[in-house]
Amino acid sequence: xxxxxxxxxxxxxxxxxxxxxxPNLLKSHLRxxxxxxxxxxxxxxxxRALETNNEHxxxxxxxxxxxxxxxxxxxxxxxxxxxxYQSLVDRWIEYWRSKSPTYIGLSVFSSFSQQMALYLSQxxxxxxxxxxxxxxxxxVTWAEPHKESGLIDHYIYGDAEDSVVALLDGNLTAPGIDxxxxxxxEMNKMLVPDYSDIKWEQYEPKGNMSVYLTASRGCVxxxxxxxxxxxxxxxxxxxxxxxxxxxxxxxxxxxxxSFFFTDSLINGSLKAxxxxxxxxxxxxxxxxxxxxxxxxxxxxKSMSPESDFALMKESGCSWLDIGVESFSEEVRxxxxxxxxxxxxxxxxxxxxxxGIGGTLMGxxxxxxxxxxxxxxxxxxxxxxxxxxxxxxxxxxxxxxxxFIGTMLLDPTQPLFDMIKPELKWSSMIDWEYRGxxxxxxxxxxxxxxxxxxxxxxxxxxTDLAERNKRNYKDRADxxxxxxxxxx
Length: 487
Description:
Largest sheet: 6 strands, parallel
Strand content: 15-25%
Number of domains: 2
Radius of gyration: 23 Å
CATH architecture of the largest domain: Alpha-Beta Horseshoe
């Protein structure tokens, strides 16, 4: 049997609606460089195994702390969960042995992948001692101690299109390898991801295949609460034609129906955005059986005229997630999101006119948020409801109120250093600034959720919102919180 150069694993936990882009993109770049690669999606296999025992919602929608844990060791809760699925892990190991890889790459996409990365690395060391282990992804900033201990051989931080090829070339001093320095790839050089290893029938929802696309990395804004710029200091984007060609190629190869852009914002470069939409609109003249969804920033009418929204609809846009963060302009301006509520209402009016649905994403309890700011948020919610945004019969035009949690304060966020002199910080969840305490934030969150239910019922509350409500009630009753990652 020929020895495989690298087997890349997609680690739990991630939404089960589609495979992540990264490993499949790296496969294309590795193949072009002459290396063999296989992608194995452990996330969807674990999800389906949990589903068999009716545990998928418990672990994928609620008990985040089991997967997040701590970055230094496998937690007892995670070890207990995986011990009940030992037969699945045994099948993974048997499958990997059949591939005989030189490297096993573990894709650490988020904090929810940390426990699985630690757990599997130890198993590989014990049961496949001749196989090298490399971690890659955004959340490998904590990897160096595990390299020093011998748990892993290498880690790659940032964009890995060049770095993973350099690793297999034996060039261990290449950018991104065993370093957390900025490592950005020229996006127009990106190849079309190779999804040939993916079993599409396994994904959610079954029979309605979805794919992630990446048109840009980084962000044009410098929001105080966001650490995206830590990994991508420079906003970079692909040409509109380049993105459209990838979508069309994947659509033709796999008949996918939904394309989810992973970008922090799809309209960061208006020129590239419009160019992409023109190419997609042209393609839809012969194939209209698909649509695209993305995150989006509200811009004033002078920058995004009505023609943009007409073209969005013509190009297949069906849904936009808008980062509102707060309905208080004063709070939003402190964040660095300098658009007005009038700009937001204009955007929503255009979305409604052209039949584009969306979610207003945000959170409660930004450090400078006052009681007056909180009331502004509640009043805006009432205004949007009164003007029919949340109660339109046509589901495609509905705007969902997506303020689902309280502010999580992370030391890697620029905001942390800005308020540090007056900040009392215990954890991402539990902190205090100028009287803005955990108790205040959870009370405001519940008032928001209660108003949503009063105005429109619970139809638009997400699973995360339900989890936050449950945590609040548990806290009030003196019980252990069911999640350690959001409140």
